[in-house]
Amino acid sequence: MHDPAIARLRDQDPAVADLVEAEARRQYEKVRLIASENYVSPAVLEATGSVLTNKYSEGYTGRRYYEGQQYIDPIELLAVERAKRVFGVEHANVQPYSGSPANLAVYMAFLEPGDTVMGMSLPMGGHLTHGWSVSATGKWFRPVRYGVRADTGRIDLDEVRDLARRERPKLIWCGGTAIPRTIDFAAFAEIAREVGAVLAADIAHIAGLIAGGAHPSPVGHADVISTTTHKTLRGPRGAMIMTTEEHAKAVDKAVFPGLQGGPHNHTTAAIAVALEEAARPDFADYAHQVVANARALAAALAERGFDLVSGGTDNHLILIDLTGRGVPGKPAAQALDRAGIELNYNTVPFDPRKPFDPSGLRLGTAAITTRGLTEGEMPRIAAWIDEVVQAAAKQDDTALDRVAGEVRELMAAYPMPGWAPAP
């Protein structure tokens, strides 16, 4: 049973409705540990599926290229003002379609093609758009990359400083896609100032934790901040760029007309709703519970002998190195999915295996925390993961269906926003 309902979709296109129903049930029945996924509220779902998708609104509030913006402009203004209030920034652009275009807009605002950009190496936990070779950002700009220490799995900021001094980048990225530890924004800012670089903080994974006070903020340290609006922030699939008034014009011009046409107004409205939710006291409780759950799950996994990159986590994300477990990340992730535990295979620092068949697993606790799970359930989830990984190493599937049934039984006790089984 969907909330909001999809009765008209079922009447009009039962094939699509059946697939939506199946996906909703899958999300309900599984322990969803993909670090970049979450559940949004029914209010966010309603905004995303509203008539706002009918309207084209190229330009910015008060300066559109189409008429009929009497209600669109106030919606975008709400989203902007709420972003400014939640994150404590001077300027926010809520129009980027997703995280990668938002990051590309940062390049367009501050760099010229061929300029040097410094970012965390993708295999070490960075993001494609931080200058990796297969990305446009690695092809159109000159990338230099930092990583983590082999002995600690953590960023060595002295090495970052030495690299910055030697290469003199015009833009430095901090943040990434598989970083389980707190990002020291102040230290990155000091390095950026020393070499005259713009500091960009990519907080896509931790935006909700920052909004809820469970992770330090880059505001006051980074010149520009990019983020998606889903993941820990529990909004729709969109993005934002936040900055100071000094850089506002350059950022806005880079988004439109530099990279995009009209914004997706239904997404803008859903971002506004999610930001209003993030301003509530219970969202702070949620953000801190995400971190508490991640630490409890990491501890339970470590007790079972799993090798955790950096030894644990400070946020929502855990990175497991399976090198010593006799099974690569991909078959382990596939076995876990069959057993009702959804996560993704992932490279780990200094991984000898290829990216499409790496040594690691990446998991996070944002979605299960939204469902209401707390620290008490984490040892049980760790036990399931351990059992399934051992089964995958032995190529023994006999336990997977049993674990999947146990997972379904557990998750049935925790309501899912937006869907429930028919009574």
Structure, explained:
InterPro entries: PyrdxlP-dep_Trfase, PyrdxlP-dep_Trfase_major, PyrdxlP-dep_Trfase_small, Ser_HO-MeTrfase, Ser_HO-MeTrfase-like, Ser_HO-MeTrfase_PLP_BS, SHMT-like_dom. It is found in: Cytoplasm. Keywords: Amino-acid biosynthesis, Cytoplasm, One-carbon metabolism, Pyridoxal phosphate, Transferase. (6S)-5,6,7,8-tetrahydrofolate binds at residues 122, 126-128, 245. Pathway: One-carbon metabolism; tetrahydrofolate interconversion; Amino-acid biosynthesis; glycine biosynthesis; glycine from L-serine: step 1/1. The protein is α/β, with parallel strands linked by helices and 423 residues long. The protein has 2 domains: 47-278, Aspartate Aminotransferase, domain 2; 291-411, Alpha-Beta Complex (Aspartate Aminotransferase, domain 1), CATH 3.90.1150. The protein is 44% helix and 13% strand. It has 16 helices and 15 strands. The strands form 4 sheets. The chain has a 7-stranded mixed β-sheet with strand order 4-10-9-8-7-5-6, with helices on both faces. It has a 4-stranded antiparallel β-sheet with strand order 11-12-15-14, with helices on one face. A two-stranded parallel ribbon has the order 1-13. α3 runs antiparallel to α11 (265-278), α7 runs parallel beside α8 (185-195) and α12 crosses α15 (378-394). The longest helix is centred in the C-terminal third of the chain and has 23 residues, at 281-303. The chain is globular and about 60 Å long. The relative contact order is 0.16.
